[in-house]
Amino acid sequence: MSDKKYSNDVEVARSYYNSKDADNFYYMVWGGEDLHLGIYQTEDEDIYTASRRAIDRMAEKADKIDANTRIIDLGGGFAGSARHLARKYGCQVVVLNLSEAENERGRKMNREQNLDHLIDVIDGSFDDIPYEDESFDIVWSEDAILHSDDRDKVISEAARVLKPGGRFIFTDPMQTDNCDEEVLQPIYERINLSSLGSPAFYRKACKNYGLKEEEFEEMADQLTTHYYRVLKETEKNEPRLEGYVSQEYIDNMKKGLRHWVNGGKEGHLTWGIFTFSKEA
Q1: What's 118's domain CATH number?
Q2: Most buried residue, 43, 79, 148, 273, by CB count within 10 Å?
Q3: Is 183 exposed, middle or buried (0-12, 13-18, 19+ CB in 10 A)?
Q4: Cα-flanking dihedrals φ and ψ of residue 142, to 5°?
């Protein structure tokens, strides 16, 4: 494991995703490639297919992606999105991710799929990106920024490493702009944070760092669908998880997933694809 020093909240997230329970759960239940939300055509569609659709929808927000495009994926998990993009477009992708356990799994999958020559997996936090200014054509992130205790710093870092004319394309589970934070306490406690970002927060932060909003494709219903699908998959796969994931973890996960589903149904949560550009 890395000896890098992180803030308390970031270290909590790192320890969580490095745990055997979390690593095995996300790999065995969440589709095998990703840890992010999907875009579903039906409520019972498999998670893997919905996740691939979310990546493709995000890629459509870029001006273009080809072999000359350089992308950094902030909080890229098992590097599944990077593999999908590299395979489809031949682009170069850096995955910056906090969990060394996930990164080792991601590097192994990159090698197995003969994509390691296109993908670099780097241990680190997205509030301190270890690259020079204006290094990337696209800064990409899926459902990861919520885990930061300094989301403003994450946005400033994303803007810093983005080339002029480049795109910042990301998704994140968010609380709605008018949400009473007290109703989300069970979710905050589950992810060890005191808040979630909101559309208004991301709009303001990105504007402050010179990023222009191009689009917000809001799909709040997909958040509810996704967490409900993961809950059903968790319940269905409990016997298969025995010996790989502790029962305590499974019980806590099911409880947490129900909080996400309820928060979505009650209109307290939202999700979608934000696209910002940096002036050329």
Answers
A1: 3.40.50.150
A2: 79
A3: middle
A4: -125, 110
Q: Quick one: pLDDT at residue 181?
A: 82
Q: 73-85 burial by CB neighbour count: b if 16+ within 10 A, else e?
A: bbbbbbbbbbbbb
Q: Crossing angle of helices 100-112/80-89, nearest 10°?
A: 30
- Write out the residue range of the structural domain in which residue 221 sits: 8-271
What does DSSP assign to residue 78? T
Q: What is the tens place of the pLDDT at every residue in 209-236?
A: 999 999 999 999 999 999 999 999 999 9
Q: In which residue ranges of the chain is pLDDT below 70?
A: 1-9
Is 46 a domain residue? yes
CB 31 within 8 A of CB 46: yes
Measured CA angle at 4 (ends 141, 130), to 5 deg: 45
pLDDT score, position 194 = 81
Separation between Cα atoms, residue 278 and residue 212, nearest integer Å: 6
